[in-house]
Amino acid sequence: MANTVLVGAQWGDEGKGKIIDVLTSEVDVVVRFQGGNNAGHTVKVDDMKYVLHLLPSGMLHEGKQCVIGNGVVIDPVALAAEIDELREQGIEIGDRLLISDRAHIVFPYHGALDAAREAARRPDKKIGTTKRGIGPAYGDKVSRVGLRIGDLLDPTFPQLVAERMDEANRVLVAMGAEPIDTAALIASTSEAARVIAPFIGDSITFLSEAVAAGQSILFEGAQGTMLDIDFGTYPFVTSSNTTAGGACAGTGVPPNRIDRVLGVIKTYTTRVGEGPFPTELQDEIGALLAKEGHEFGATTGRPRRCGWFDAVVARYSTMINGFDFWAMTKLDVMDKIETIKICVAYECDGTRYETVPHNIRILQRCTPVYEEMPGWQTPTTEVTRFDDLPQAAKDYVNRLCELTGVKLGILSVGAQRKSTLRVGI
Ligand code: GDP
Ligand code: IMO
Ligand code: MG
Fold first, then answer.
1. Pair 243, 320: CB distance under 8 Å
2. Domain boundaries 4-99+199-261, corresponding CATH code
Protein backbone atom coordinates (compact mmCIF):
# COMPACT_ATOMS: atom_id res chain seq x y z
CA MET A 1 0.00 0.00 0.00
CA ALA A 2 1.06 3.60 -0.62
CA ASN A 3 2.42 5.72 2.24
CA THR A 4 -0.82 6.99 3.75
CA VAL A 5 -1.55 9.68 6.30
CA LEU A 6 -4.77 9.02 8.20
CA VAL A 7 -6.32 11.84 10.22
CA GLY A 8 -9.62 12.68 11.86
CA ALA A 9 -11.69 15.27 10.00
CA GLN A 10 -13.90 16.45 12.89
CA TRP A 11 -13.38 16.75 16.66
CA GLY A 12 -11.77 13.34 17.24
CA ASP A 13 -13.23 9.88 17.92
CA GLU A 14 -14.15 9.42 14.26
CA GLY A 15 -13.18 5.74 14.44
CA LYS A 16 -9.53 6.18 13.44
CA GLY A 17 -8.46 3.18 15.56
CA LYS A 18 -10.82 0.85 13.74
CA ILE A 19 -9.80 2.05 10.27
CA ILE A 20 -6.08 1.87 11.16
CA ASP A 21 -6.61 -1.68 12.38
CA VAL A 22 -8.27 -2.64 9.10
CA LEU A 23 -5.52 -1.05 6.97
CA THR A 24 -2.61 -2.36 9.04
CA SER A 25 -2.69 -5.74 7.34
CA GLU A 26 -1.73 -3.94 4.10
CA VAL A 27 1.27 -1.94 5.41
CA ASP A 28 4.68 -2.63 6.91
CA VAL A 29 4.91 0.13 9.52
CA VAL A 30 2.36 2.13 11.56
CA VAL A 31 3.58 5.37 13.14
CA ARG A 32 1.89 7.80 15.57
CA PHE A 33 3.03 11.37 14.95
CA GLN A 34 1.38 13.68 17.50
CA GLY A 35 -0.70 13.88 20.65
CA GLY A 36 -0.28 11.71 23.69
CA ASN A 37 -2.45 9.62 25.96
CA ASN A 38 -5.27 12.12 25.54
CA ALA A 39 -6.12 9.88 22.55
CA GLY A 40 -8.32 6.82 22.94
CA HIS A 41 -8.49 4.55 19.90
CA THR A 42 -10.85 1.61 20.27
CA VAL A 43 -10.41 -1.55 18.25
CA LYS A 44 -12.81 -4.45 18.51
CA VAL A 45 -11.59 -7.83 17.36
CA ASP A 46 -14.27 -10.51 17.77
CA ASP A 47 -15.22 -10.35 21.45
CA MET A 48 -12.03 -8.56 22.53
CA LYS A 49 -11.93 -4.79 22.96
CA TYR A 50 -8.64 -2.88 22.99
CA VAL A 51 -8.32 0.82 23.80
CA LEU A 52 -4.99 2.27 22.71
CA HIS A 53 -3.80 5.61 24.02
CA LEU A 54 -0.12 5.91 23.13
CA LEU A 55 0.63 2.68 21.31
CA PRO A 56 -0.23 2.75 17.59
CA SER A 57 -3.37 0.73 16.74
CA GLY A 58 -1.18 -1.36 14.44
CA MET A 59 0.16 -3.17 17.54
CA LEU A 60 -2.78 -5.56 17.36
CA HIS A 61 -1.48 -7.16 14.16
CA GLU A 62 1.17 -9.80 14.66
CA GLY A 63 4.48 -9.01 13.00
CA LYS A 64 3.72 -5.35 12.22
CA GLN A 65 6.29 -2.76 13.19
CA CYS A 66 4.98 0.21 15.17
CA VAL A 67 6.67 3.52 15.89
CA ILE A 68 5.86 6.32 18.32
CA GLY A 69 7.26 9.33 16.49
CA ASN A 70 9.15 12.36 17.72
CA GLY A 71 6.00 14.54 17.58
CA VAL A 72 4.21 12.52 20.28
CA VAL A 73 4.37 13.50 23.96
CA ILE A 74 4.82 10.44 26.16
CA ASP A 75 3.92 9.83 29.77
CA PRO A 76 6.38 7.00 30.54
CA VAL A 77 4.30 5.66 33.43
CA ALA A 78 1.15 5.52 31.27
CA LEU A 79 3.06 3.95 28.38
CA ALA A 80 4.62 1.27 30.60
CA ALA A 81 1.15 0.46 31.97
CA GLU A 82 -0.28 0.26 28.44
CA ILE A 83 2.49 -2.10 27.34
CA ASP A 84 1.80 -4.31 30.37
CA GLU A 85 -1.93 -4.27 29.71
CA LEU A 86 -1.55 -5.24 26.07
CA ARG A 87 0.78 -8.08 27.05
CA GLU A 88 -1.84 -9.25 29.57
CA GLN A 89 -4.40 -9.24 26.75
CA GLY A 90 -2.12 -11.64 24.89
CA ILE A 91 -0.52 -9.27 22.39
CA GLU A 92 3.12 -10.08 21.70
CA ILE A 93 5.23 -6.89 21.53
CA GLY A 94 8.69 -8.40 21.09
CA ASP A 95 10.83 -6.00 19.06
CA ARG A 96 7.88 -4.56 17.13
CA LEU A 97 7.84 -1.25 18.99
CA LEU A 98 10.18 1.68 18.50
CA ILE A 99 9.84 4.82 20.64
CA SER A 100 11.50 7.95 19.31
CA ASP A 101 14.31 9.22 21.51
CA ARG A 102 13.25 12.73 20.46
CA ALA A 103 9.65 12.49 21.71
CA HIS A 104 8.99 14.74 24.71
CA ILE A 105 8.17 13.42 28.18
CA VAL A 106 4.93 14.14 30.02
CA PHE A 107 5.61 14.27 33.77
CA PRO A 108 3.11 14.32 36.66
CA TYR A 109 3.66 18.07 37.05
CA HIS A 110 2.26 18.57 33.54
CA GLY A 111 -0.93 16.80 34.61
CA ALA A 112 -1.05 18.83 37.84
CA LEU A 113 -0.60 22.07 35.91
CA ASP A 114 -3.24 21.03 33.36
CA ALA A 115 -5.71 20.43 36.22
CA ALA A 116 -4.74 23.62 38.07
CA ARG A 117 -5.21 25.75 34.94
CA GLU A 118 -8.59 24.20 34.21
CA ALA A 119 -9.68 24.79 37.83
CA ALA A 120 -8.62 28.43 37.61
CA ARG A 121 -10.58 29.12 34.42
CA ARG A 122 -14.01 30.77 34.44
CA PRO A 123 -16.76 28.24 33.61
CA ASP A 124 -17.16 29.59 30.06
CA LYS A 125 -13.38 29.48 29.50
CA LYS A 126 -12.79 25.89 30.58
CA ILE A 127 -11.44 23.73 27.74
CA GLY A 128 -12.52 20.44 29.22
CA THR A 129 -9.08 18.88 28.69
CA THR A 130 -8.39 15.22 29.39
CA LYS A 131 -6.09 16.41 32.24
CA ARG A 132 -3.32 14.22 30.86
CA GLY A 133 -0.84 17.12 30.90
CA ILE A 134 -0.76 17.43 27.12
CA GLY A 135 -0.92 21.24 26.88
CA PRO A 136 1.77 21.87 29.53
CA ALA A 137 4.07 19.20 28.00
CA TYR A 138 3.87 20.73 24.52
CA GLY A 139 4.26 24.11 26.24
CA ASP A 140 7.58 22.96 27.73
CA LYS A 141 8.70 21.67 24.33
CA VAL A 142 7.99 24.98 22.60
CA SER A 143 9.47 26.92 25.53
CA ARG A 144 12.63 24.78 25.18
CA VAL A 145 12.55 23.52 28.76
CA GLY A 146 11.20 20.01 28.12
CA LEU A 147 12.95 16.68 28.63
CA ARG A 148 12.90 14.02 25.94
CA ILE A 149 12.54 10.26 26.01
CA GLY A 150 16.22 9.81 25.14
CA ASP A 151 17.07 11.69 28.37
CA LEU A 152 15.63 8.77 30.35
CA LEU A 153 18.72 6.81 29.35
CA ASP A 154 21.15 9.55 30.35
CA PRO A 155 23.01 9.08 33.66
CA THR A 156 22.27 12.72 34.53
CA PHE A 157 18.49 12.19 34.21
CA PRO A 158 17.73 12.69 37.96
CA GLN A 159 19.62 15.96 37.89
CA LEU A 160 17.85 17.15 34.72
CA VAL A 161 14.49 16.43 36.37
CA ALA A 162 15.45 18.13 39.62
CA GLU A 163 16.49 21.27 37.71
CA ARG A 164 13.21 21.32 35.83
CA MET A 165 11.13 20.67 38.96
CA ASP A 166 12.58 23.71 40.63
CA GLU A 167 10.65 26.03 38.31
CA ALA A 168 7.68 23.69 37.78
CA ASN A 169 6.95 23.50 41.52
CA ARG A 170 7.19 27.26 41.89
CA VAL A 171 4.56 27.61 39.17
CA LEU A 172 2.32 24.97 40.77
CA VAL A 173 2.52 26.62 44.19
CA ALA A 174 1.83 30.04 42.69
CA MET A 175 -1.35 28.55 41.17
CA GLY A 176 -2.45 27.24 44.57
CA ALA A 177 -1.68 23.60 43.72
CA GLU A 178 0.36 21.12 45.74
CA PRO A 179 4.05 20.88 44.77
CA ILE A 180 5.23 17.53 43.38
CA ASP A 181 7.67 15.41 45.37
CA THR A 182 10.69 15.36 43.07
CA ALA A 183 12.25 12.21 44.54
CA ALA A 184 8.98 10.27 44.13
CA LEU A 185 8.64 11.55 40.57
CA ILE A 186 12.18 10.44 39.71
CA ALA A 187 11.52 7.02 41.28
CA SER A 188 8.24 6.38 39.39
CA THR A 189 9.65 7.65 36.11
CA SER A 190 12.80 5.55 36.47
CA GLU A 191 10.72 2.45 37.16
CA ALA A 192 8.67 3.07 34.00
CA ALA A 193 11.88 3.82 32.10
CA ARG A 194 13.05 0.26 32.80
CA VAL A 195 9.97 -1.08 30.96
CA ILE A 196 10.24 1.21 27.96
CA ALA A 197 14.06 1.48 27.67
CA PRO A 198 14.42 -1.53 25.31
CA PHE A 199 12.11 0.17 22.81
CA ILE A 200 13.78 3.59 22.73
CA GLY A 201 15.76 4.37 19.60
CA ASP A 202 16.41 6.50 16.54
CA SER A 203 13.04 6.54 14.76
CA ILE A 204 14.27 9.05 12.18
CA THR A 205 16.87 6.67 10.72
CA PHE A 206 14.52 3.71 11.07
CA LEU A 207 11.74 5.40 9.08
CA SER A 208 14.16 6.80 6.51
CA GLU A 209 15.52 3.30 5.88
CA ALA A 210 12.01 1.84 5.74
CA VAL A 211 11.04 4.41 3.09
CA ALA A 212 14.24 3.75 1.13
CA ALA A 213 13.55 0.02 1.22
CA GLY A 214 10.11 0.62 -0.29
CA GLN A 215 8.18 -0.36 2.82
CA SER A 216 4.73 1.16 3.16
CA ILE A 217 3.94 3.38 6.11
CA LEU A 218 0.63 4.29 7.69
CA PHE A 219 0.69 7.52 9.70
CA GLU A 220 -1.83 7.30 12.53
CA GLY A 221 -3.34 10.66 13.48
CA ALA A 222 -4.86 11.30 16.88
CA GLN A 223 -7.62 13.79 17.76
CA GLY A 224 -9.13 15.59 14.76
CA THR A 225 -8.78 18.63 12.49
CA MET A 226 -11.08 20.85 14.58
CA LEU A 227 -8.84 20.20 17.61
CA ASP A 228 -5.68 21.25 15.72
CA ILE A 229 -3.67 23.94 17.52
CA ASP A 230 -3.60 26.11 14.35
CA PHE A 231 -6.77 25.18 12.49
CA GLY A 232 -9.17 24.11 15.23
CA THR A 233 -11.65 26.07 17.32
CA TYR A 234 -8.88 27.81 19.28
CA PRO A 235 -8.54 27.93 22.27
CA PHE A 236 -10.87 24.89 22.58
CA VAL A 237 -8.29 22.65 20.92
CA THR A 238 -5.49 20.29 21.82
CA SER A 239 -1.83 21.39 21.67
CA SER A 240 -0.52 19.66 18.54
CA ASN A 241 -0.97 19.70 14.78
CA THR A 242 -3.53 16.97 14.32
CA THR A 243 -3.74 17.62 10.58
CA ALA A 244 -1.92 15.90 7.72
CA GLY A 245 0.97 18.39 7.79
CA GLY A 246 1.80 17.18 11.29
CA ALA A 247 2.73 13.75 9.94
CA CYS A 248 6.02 15.02 8.49
CA ALA A 249 7.03 17.20 11.43
CA GLY A 250 6.09 14.45 13.85
CA THR A 251 8.11 11.68 12.20
CA GLY A 252 10.87 13.20 10.10
CA VAL A 253 9.50 11.55 6.94
CA PRO A 254 9.74 14.18 4.16
CA PRO A 255 6.54 15.49 2.46
CA ASN A 256 7.55 14.06 -0.93
CA ARG A 257 7.39 10.55 0.53
CA ILE A 258 3.69 10.84 1.38
CA ASP A 259 1.46 9.32 -1.31
CA ARG A 260 -2.04 9.98 -0.07
CA VAL A 261 -4.20 11.29 2.74
CA LEU A 262 -7.23 9.51 4.15
CA GLY A 263 -9.82 11.41 6.16
CA VAL A 264 -11.79 9.56 8.80
CA ILE A 265 -15.19 11.12 9.33
CA LYS A 266 -18.36 10.09 11.13
CA THR A 267 -21.63 10.31 9.22
CA TYR A 268 -22.74 12.62 12.06
CA THR A 269 -20.65 14.72 14.46
CA THR A 270 -19.44 14.39 18.04
CA ARG A 271 -17.31 16.45 20.37
CA VAL A 272 -15.97 15.77 23.89
CA GLY A 273 -15.08 18.69 26.10
CA GLU A 274 -16.05 22.33 25.74
CA GLY A 275 -16.12 24.68 22.76
CA PRO A 276 -18.31 25.63 19.82
CA PHE A 277 -20.26 22.91 18.03
CA PRO A 278 -22.76 24.46 15.58
CA THR A 279 -24.74 21.30 14.73
CA GLU A 280 -25.02 20.03 18.32
CA LEU A 281 -28.38 18.43 19.13
CA GLN A 282 -29.63 18.75 22.68
CA ASP A 283 -32.81 16.85 21.92
CA GLU A 284 -33.97 13.25 21.56
CA ILE A 285 -32.08 12.77 18.27
CA GLY A 286 -28.84 13.80 19.97
CA ALA A 287 -29.65 11.33 22.74
CA LEU A 288 -30.39 8.61 20.15
CA LEU A 289 -27.03 9.14 18.41
CA ALA A 290 -25.26 9.01 21.78
CA LYS A 291 -27.06 5.80 22.72
CA GLU A 292 -26.79 3.97 19.40
CA GLY A 293 -23.20 5.13 18.88
CA HIS A 294 -22.10 4.42 22.49
CA GLU A 295 -20.71 7.93 22.51
CA PHE A 296 -18.64 7.98 25.68
CA GLY A 297 -15.00 9.12 25.72
CA ALA A 298 -12.54 6.24 25.37
CA THR A 299 -10.04 8.08 27.60
CA THR A 300 -12.13 9.91 30.19
CA GLY A 301 -15.51 8.15 29.95
CA ARG A 302 -17.22 11.54 29.53
CA PRO A 303 -20.41 11.59 27.41
CA ARG A 304 -19.72 12.90 23.91
CA ARG A 305 -21.88 15.74 22.58
CA CYS A 306 -23.65 14.65 19.36
CA GLY A 307 -25.05 16.47 16.33
CA TRP A 308 -25.75 16.39 12.61
CA PHE A 309 -23.07 16.05 9.93
CA ASP A 310 -21.43 19.41 9.33
CA ALA A 311 -20.35 19.80 5.70
CA VAL A 312 -18.82 23.21 6.47
CA VAL A 313 -16.40 21.51 8.86
CA ALA A 314 -15.82 18.64 6.41
CA ARG A 315 -14.98 21.02 3.53
CA TYR A 316 -12.71 23.14 5.74
CA SER A 317 -10.99 19.97 6.90
CA THR A 318 -10.56 18.86 3.29
CA MET A 319 -8.88 22.16 2.37
CA ILE A 320 -6.32 21.68 5.13
CA ASN A 321 -5.65 17.97 4.75
CA GLY A 322 -6.15 17.44 1.01
CA PHE A 323 -8.11 14.24 1.50
CA ASP A 324 -7.90 11.79 -1.38
CA PHE A 325 -10.56 9.52 0.11
CA TRP A 326 -13.01 9.39 2.99
CA ALA A 327 -13.24 6.58 5.46
CA MET A 328 -16.82 7.26 6.63
CA THR A 329 -17.80 5.59 9.87
CA LYS A 330 -20.80 4.73 12.02
CA LEU A 331 -23.43 4.83 9.28
CA ASP A 332 -25.30 2.11 11.21
CA VAL A 333 -25.79 4.51 14.12
CA MET A 334 -28.18 6.54 11.93
CA ASP A 335 -30.30 3.51 10.99
CA LYS A 336 -33.34 4.54 13.03
CA ILE A 337 -33.59 8.22 12.07
CA GLU A 338 -36.60 9.25 10.01
CA THR A 339 -35.35 12.51 8.53
CA ILE A 340 -31.66 13.39 8.43
CA LYS A 341 -30.25 16.91 8.33
CA ILE A 342 -26.94 18.00 6.83
CA CYS A 343 -25.44 21.39 7.66
CA VAL A 344 -24.35 23.08 4.40
CA ALA A 345 -23.56 26.60 5.67
CA TYR A 346 -23.78 28.79 8.79
CA GLU A 347 -25.57 32.04 9.39
CA CYS A 348 -24.68 34.68 11.95
CA ASP A 349 -26.00 38.24 12.18
CA GLY A 350 -27.27 38.11 8.60
CA THR A 351 -23.96 36.85 7.17
CA ARG A 352 -23.73 33.44 5.50
CA TYR A 353 -20.55 31.47 6.16
CA GLU A 354 -19.44 28.77 3.70
CA THR A 355 -16.32 28.01 5.75
CA VAL A 356 -15.41 28.00 9.44
CA PRO A 357 -14.94 31.56 10.77
CA HIS A 358 -11.76 32.11 12.79
CA ASN A 359 -13.60 33.95 15.55
CA ILE A 360 -15.08 31.43 17.97
CA ARG A 361 -17.39 34.08 19.44
CA ILE A 362 -19.01 34.23 16.00
CA LEU A 363 -18.87 30.44 15.57
CA GLN A 364 -20.57 30.01 18.93
CA ARG A 365 -23.52 32.11 17.74
CA CYS A 366 -23.78 30.60 14.24
CA THR A 367 -26.95 28.79 13.30
CA PRO A 368 -26.62 25.94 10.80
CA VAL A 369 -28.34 26.08 7.41
CA TYR A 370 -29.69 22.56 6.88
CA GLU A 371 -30.80 20.46 3.99
CA GLU A 372 -32.86 17.36 4.68
CA MET A 373 -32.80 13.82 3.39
CA PRO A 374 -35.00 10.83 4.18
CA GLY A 375 -33.53 8.20 6.50
CA TRP A 376 -33.49 4.49 5.59
CA GLN A 377 -34.81 3.05 8.84
CA THR A 378 -33.33 -0.35 8.08
CA PRO A 379 -30.40 -2.05 9.87
CA THR A 380 -27.17 -1.71 7.86
CA THR A 381 -24.59 -3.37 10.09
CA GLU A 382 -24.77 -6.77 8.36
CA VAL A 383 -24.36 -5.26 4.87
CA THR A 384 -21.08 -6.28 3.21
CA ARG A 385 -21.28 -4.49 -0.16
CA PHE A 386 -21.99 -0.79 -0.77
CA ASP A 387 -24.47 -1.67 -3.53
CA ASP A 388 -26.53 -3.71 -1.07
CA LEU A 389 -27.24 -0.73 1.22
CA PRO A 390 -30.75 0.75 1.24
CA GLN A 391 -31.06 3.37 -1.52
CA ALA A 392 -31.62 6.20 1.00
CA ALA A 393 -28.36 5.27 2.79
CA LYS A 394 -26.43 5.28 -0.50
CA ASP A 395 -27.99 8.63 -1.39
CA TYR A 396 -26.96 10.07 1.98
CA VAL A 397 -23.34 8.90 1.71
CA ASN A 398 -23.12 10.04 -1.91
CA ARG A 399 -24.49 13.47 -0.93
CA LEU A 400 -21.80 13.81 1.78
CA CYS A 401 -19.14 13.02 -0.83
CA GLU A 402 -20.68 15.47 -3.29
CA LEU A 403 -20.85 18.29 -0.71
CA THR A 404 -17.22 17.77 0.28
CA GLY A 405 -15.74 16.94 -3.14
CA VAL A 406 -14.01 13.84 -1.73
CA LYS A 407 -14.44 10.26 -2.97
CA LEU A 408 -15.55 7.45 -0.72
CA GLY A 409 -12.80 4.93 0.02
CA ILE A 410 -14.13 3.00 3.02
CA LEU A 411 -17.54 2.88 4.66
CA SER A 412 -17.85 1.47 8.16
CA VAL A 413 -21.19 0.07 9.32
CA GLY A 414 -20.13 -1.46 12.65
CA ALA A 415 -17.28 -1.61 15.15
CA GLN A 416 -16.03 -5.02 13.99
CA ARG A 417 -13.37 -5.52 11.31
CA LYS A 418 -15.88 -7.34 9.10
CA SER A 419 -18.28 -4.36 9.11
CA THR A 420 -16.04 -2.45 6.73
CA LEU A 421 -17.03 -1.87 3.12
CA ARG A 422 -14.13 -1.18 0.78
CA VAL A 423 -15.32 1.08 -2.00
CA GLY A 424 -12.61 3.14 -3.69
CA ILE A 425 -9.43 1.87 -1.98
P1 GDP B 1 -10.87 7.17 17.47
O2 GDP B 1 -10.44 7.96 18.64
O3 GDP B 1 -11.03 7.99 16.23
O4 GDP B 1 -10.05 5.94 17.24
O5 GDP B 1 -12.36 6.67 17.82
P6 GDP B 1 -12.85 6.01 19.22
O7 GDP B 1 -12.30 4.66 19.31
O8 GDP B 1 -12.57 6.95 20.35
O9 GDP B 1 -14.41 6.04 19.02
C10 GDP B 1 -15.02 5.35 17.98
C11 GDP B 1 -15.99 4.32 18.58
O12 GDP B 1 -16.88 3.87 17.58
C13 GDP B 1 -15.29 3.07 19.08
O14 GDP B 1 -16.00 2.59 20.19
C15 GDP B 1 -15.38 2.09 17.92
O16 GDP B 1 -15.40 0.72 18.35
C17 GDP B 1 -16.72 2.46 17.35
N18 GDP B 1 -16.88 2.31 15.90
C19 GDP B 1 -15.97 2.52 14.91
N20 GDP B 1 -16.54 2.39 13.70
C21 GDP B 1 -17.83 2.09 13.93
C22 GDP B 1 -18.96 1.88 13.08
O23 GDP B 1 -18.89 1.94 11.85
N24 GDP B 1 -20.17 1.63 13.69
C25 GDP B 1 -20.30 1.56 15.04
N26 GDP B 1 -21.50 1.32 15.53
N27 GDP B 1 -19.26 1.76 15.87
C28 GDP B 1 -18.05 2.04 15.31
P1 IMO C 1 -8.84 10.68 19.80
O2 IMO C 1 -7.46 10.44 19.26
C3 IMO C 1 -11.76 13.58 21.27
C4 IMO C 1 -10.20 17.04 23.44
C5 IMO C 1 -10.50 17.16 24.91
C6 IMO C 1 -10.56 18.67 25.06
C7 IMO C 1 -9.47 19.14 24.11
C8 IMO C 1 -8.14 19.45 24.77
O9 IMO C 1 -9.39 9.57 20.62
O10 IMO C 1 -9.76 11.13 18.70
P11 IMO C 1 -6.23 17.90 25.80
O12 IMO C 1 -6.27 16.91 26.91
O13 IMO C 1 -5.78 17.36 24.50
O14 IMO C 1 -5.47 19.15 26.17
O15 IMO C 1 -7.76 18.37 25.64
O16 IMO C 1 -9.28 18.09 23.17
N17 IMO C 1 -9.54 15.78 23.03
C18 IMO C 1 -10.18 14.81 22.36
N19 IMO C 1 -11.45 14.69 21.96
N20 IMO C 1 -10.88 12.63 20.94
C21 IMO C 1 -9.57 12.74 21.30
O22 IMO C 1 -8.63 11.89 20.86
C23 IMO C 1 -9.17 13.85 22.07
N24 IMO C 1 -8.00 14.24 22.61
C25 IMO C 1 -8.24 15.44 23.18
O26 IMO C 1 -11.74 16.56 25.23
O27 IMO C 1 -11.78 19.16 24.55
MG1 MG D 1 -11.02 8.36 20.60
1. yes
2. 3.40.440.10
Task: Please name the residue whose Cα sits nearest to atom 10 of ligand 1.
Answer: 15
Q: Which CATH fold would you assign to the domain 104-195?
A: Adenylosuccinate Synthetase, subunit A; domain 2 (1.10.300)
> Which residues, judged by CB distance below 6 Å to any ligand atom, belong to the binding site of ligand 1?
8, 12-18, 40-42, 44, 293-294, 298, 329-330, 332-333, 412-415, 419
CB-CB contact of 231 with 243 (8 Å): yes
Q: How far is residue 408's CA from residue 43's CA, in Å, rounded to a whole number?
A: 22
The pLDDT value given to residue 94: 87
Residue-level pLDDT at 297: 80
> Any idea where the domains of the chain sit in the sequence?
4-99+199-261, 104-195, 266-422
Q: How far apart are the first and last CA of the chain?
A: 10
Binning pLDDT at 50, 70 and 90, where does residue 364 land? very high
Residue 276 CB neighbours (<10 A): 18
Question: Helices 76-88 and 182-196 meet at what angle, rounded to 10?
Answer: 40
